[in-house]
Amino acid sequence: MAISARHLDKAFSGVHAVRDLSFDVRPGIVTGFLGPNGSGKSTTMRLMLHLVRGGGVTTFGGQRIDQLRRPLRTIGAVLDPAAHNPHRSARAHLRIFAAAAGMPASRADEVLDLVGLTHAASRSSGEFSLGMQQRLALAAALVGDPEYLILDEPANGLDPQGIRWLRDFLTARTDEGRTVLLSSHQLAEIAQTADEVIVLGRGEIVTQGLLRDFVDQFSHQQVLVRSPAVDRLAGCLKANDIGPFTATGTDGLLITGDVNTAQIGDLAGHYGITLHELSSHSSSLEEAFLEATAATTDYQGTA
Ligand SMILES: Nc1ncnc2c1ncn2[C@@H]1O[C@H](COP(=O)(O)OP(=O)(O)OP(=O)(O)O)[C@@H](O)[C@H]1O
């Protein structure tokens, strides 16, 4: 079932971190939660889970978290991979979660197996690498076999195999009809995992909906053309009001705007201009993200 967040709002002293945020997270798909640093993703997730006080209401399949007798059986969350006692073994850590969830102690070994940590079950979690801590945090979230997963940067620190494993793992969960909200800075990861996205900027929703619609909305179609007669081709584009375009390399033009390859091919054919390459290029999620959030980015470095 869906997660429904309504009018979430949180101000810290001097910073309005989340402003009147309302959204739904649909079941059976992964919803990516995106936004620049400081845009309010973690605060939103904490508000949803009643881990910070603030305005608004979140329901999971119609129920607020404080109405659930055993929240761990309904909602699993990964918020801080370092939230474990470093002197405790992974198995002992998870047995505490199992007890809190009303699950048998043997569930600890099941989830260790699920996240690929069986070999480290007896080791102190303080010895774990960041990637291992992420797996342990995910194991803790899974102890109660929850229907809803709220995951704040779970891919952080995972190696490429770990990232692929996480993707397959989440897809398997959503195929079962579960509901996943996933924040990540790894846009390539979101592009391959999420079906829908919610994009935040300065505590407000910039856009939300299908990932492919988001990329389409904020992307520019580009056509790359290479020709030994690139100057003539540039003149023809100008004469026919096609563009804008920029030179790339010694013989190429990158054309943007409302343009497609057929149009450019026809134009070149009409003027008898030889082409060595004609290809189209759609923007990536990264380009769409930068475009969508450009006006809301608080922290910008210099190159
Ligand atoms: N405990 C706090 N006290 C004061 N300000 C806070 C606190 N927690 C968050 N903030 C502020 O709220 C805003 C949103 O922070 P938040 O951590 O939710 O953003 P985020 O999108 O998760 O960022 P990041 O991508 O860097 O993790 C920021 O301006 C941050 O400084």
Automatic annotation (TrEMBL):
One matching Pfam family: ABC_tran
Gene3D superfamilies reported in the protein's UniProt record: P-loop containing nucleotide triphosphate hydrolases
Top-level taxon of origin: Bacteria
Gene Ontology MF terms: ATP binding; ATP hydrolysis activity
Keyword ATP-binding: yes
InterPro entries xrefs: AAA+_ATPase (IPR003593), ABC_transporter-like_ATP-bd (IPR003439), ABC_transporter-like_CS (IPR017871), P-loop_NTPase (IPR027417)
Alphabetical UniProt keywords: ATP-binding, Nucleotide-binding, Transport
Protein name: ATP-binding cassette domain-containing protein
Organism encoding this protein: Kineosporia babensis
